[in-house]
Amino acid sequence: MTWQKGHFIKDRKYKIEYELDRGGWGNIYLASNDRGESVAIKFLHEKLKQREDYDKIEQDFINEARQLAKFSHLPHIVKIYDVLTEGDKWGIVMEYINGESLSWKGILSERLALLYIQQVSSSLAEIHDNGLLHRDINPSNILVREDVDEAILIDFGIAREFTPEKIQTHTVAFTDFYSAPEQYESRTVRSPSSDIYSLAATLYKVTTNEEPEGSRSRRQGCVLRTPKQINPNVNDVVEAAILKGLELKACDRPQTVKEWLGMMGLDLIAYSEVTQPTLNTKRVEEIIAEEKERQRIEARIKFYTSELLSTDQQSRYRAFEELGKIGKKAFPAIPNLIQIMEKVNDELNLATDTLIKIGSASVIPLSQLLNHEDIKVRRRASHALESIGSEAIDSIDSLILRLEDEDAEVRWYCTITLGKIGIPSQRATSKLISKLKDSKLGVRAFAAYALGKMRSKESVASLLEIVKNENEDQQVFVASLEALRAIGYDMQELEFTGDTETLSVDKVIELYRDTWSKEESEQKAKHTGMTGYFRRPLHANTPPQ
What we know:
This protein is α+β, with helices and mostly antiparallel strands. Among the domains are: 8-96 and 279-283, Phosphorylase Kinase, domain 1 (2-Layer Sandwich), CATH 3.30.200; 99-262, Orthogonal Bundle (Transferase(Phosphotransferase), domain 1); 308-421, Leucine-rich Repeat Variant, CATH 1.25.10.10. It is 46% helix and 12% strand. It is built from 20 helices and 15 strands. The chain is elongated.
């Protein structure tokens, strides 16, 4: 799959602008991050999944991120900023180099040719000192910035660790014209001289604009033309260094980058500490672990989402359970869960409970179910939105409409939810004021609760009317008092007469709450055998009727 312009990835952190390059292993895109900065993102080709060795290819790709993290603090190594997965594709977010590769530069002046080689070689020396070979140095993998004479080495996809003087097995990997003979062999002694061969071949190209004869064909008798045979202006010293670096036997080449540069009178560049932010090795390992876990969870979600439609009941029940455990990340299962709710069968409650655990992503589909013709569906949808609570903000308009539902339980849940959402629900004020006269006790009590949560000053007069009504139910009375207090009404204007004293509003509320809590404690002890004091939360158990 090729990402199109405007496509967002990693939770909208990156936006694709266009494809920069397409190689044998991956696509590279120009993208912008959430701060508007340009980055390059490299993805593995989709077609590689068809290969039997895809797991190894994917691991090599992940290892490239690890290698970049070790060395992208160096000035002439491309910097890494992030590792990600999009679907099941791995991506590496890197520094965007605004420029072109050496393969497009033609013949360079001796000054620039040596400068670029010295820059890349100096960073490469530290890579070698840490036991790693790049193995794919060539003009295409060296980019030059547009506005400054600075070369950057990229593509660590086939980089491998090496142990001096030890025969090692490496996957055969090479670029014709630029790879040393030993790179065509799976088992041989590995050393920095392989990268030095590639550096020399690259210097050959930028001083002659021609590829050097490949090492395999030279072994079969083809002759390597000297640089001066192609470009007489090549310096004798530079030519000697190129030819020495292109020796077919590894032992005949310089064994260190420093030694090879010294043949041309060049020293390794001493770098000051780089302050540009990059990922360190520890953070890359953390991100890789996070992305692997994310892939694992996505695979579980995909599997259990499909299992929701299984003909086997136990498989369906297990799917509800597992998707509920996953929680918010299981949002891809929402369409299937909604479909199950609409069937109005024995699994209606299971689907509803799972949507509650998924949370806010379920709000809009659940809001649409508030208009369902079946009362059972409307009840479960309104119950789910109430359980989601303050995160159900996108359902406000639907909740307001269902305040007129024929079913008291639906009205009750919608009223509670508007209260939990709070101040953003203020446009429901007039409807909720009318619900203070609803025929159902629970709806009236929660209408008062909601108006208090919304800080609705327009409701003060209606709430005062309730608290002054001696015949009003205790639940509605206390809810109205608490609402007035939450709105900021001057409660000192209200006084209540007890058996022996005048009571403040706070004292009245406390007395009622204590009485209800004791009653509830007694009921729990009677039915469950549990003892202890159960403090009733704010109206939470007020029934709808």
